[in-house]
Structures are given as C-alpha cells and as structure tokens.
# Entry
Amino acid sequence: MNDFDFLTGIWDVTNRWRTDFLDETSAWEEFPAVSRASRHFDGGANFDEIKFPTRGFAGLTLRLFDPQREQWSLYWSSKRTGKLFPPVVGRFTDGRGEFYGDDTHAGKEIRARFIWSDITEESARWEQAFSVDGGKTWVTNWIMELTRR
# Structure
C-alpha cells in the first residue's frame, strides 16, 4: 500500500501534451509545472497539487488504496472546472503502475489509462492515454517527466 511514497516531496515537472487529446497526429506542446505531494493514512493515501504557471491553472490528485482489493483509485480535479473526475483504478506490478477508468472527453466516451514508470528516488514518469474503442487502441496524449527538487 506504500506504492506512492516515492512521490512525497516537491517535483519539477516537464509536461508534453497533444494539442488534440484524441488525435495521435496532433502536435505536442511542452510546458513546466511544480508538484507538491504528501503521504497520508500510513501510506494508504497520497495527495498532490500541481501548478502550471505558464498555463494559468492547477490540479489536484487524490490517491486512495483499497486494502481488500489491493488496488489504488486515483481521482483528478482541475482548478479550471472545480469538478472531481471519475477515478482510474489499478495497481503497481514490478515497479510499474497501470490505472484504467471510463470518462468523457470532448463529448466522446473514452477509456483513460495512466501509467507510472521509470521510478527512482530522483525521477519518475507519468503518462496518460485515451481510447475511443474500448481499449483496443490508445492515443498517448500527456506525458510528465518528474525531477525531484
């Protein structure tokens, strides 16, 4: 249940996202962020706030571990909407976390996937992908490279 303990602290984040989250041929944009994460419930919960200074918005993620199911639920909220998005749910295996959930984007039903990988004491990688065909194909649309401050 301590899978997200690595995230505790302050991180400089390099973001790359597609100009159209559903179009794998759309251009990538790059921008910075700063994330501050904290550990709660003896490692069974994790919370972070990320600020995107050049974009003028921020977001929050709440991660909760279900010990009976041995899986995490990750909840995202954006300052722009003030809404809590549906969770992505999953677990870590061999140092890689995969999390899936159903949502909508641009009026379309999508399957969302978050992947945490390349985790060290000083760095980590997060990526988001959307599928409009139930998970048969994926468009990776947002990548964060984290470096511990």
In short: The chain has one domain: 5-148. The beta strands are 9-18, 28-40, 45-52, 57-66, 71-78, 88-93, 96-105, 108-117, 123-131, 139-148. The radius of gyration is 15 Å.
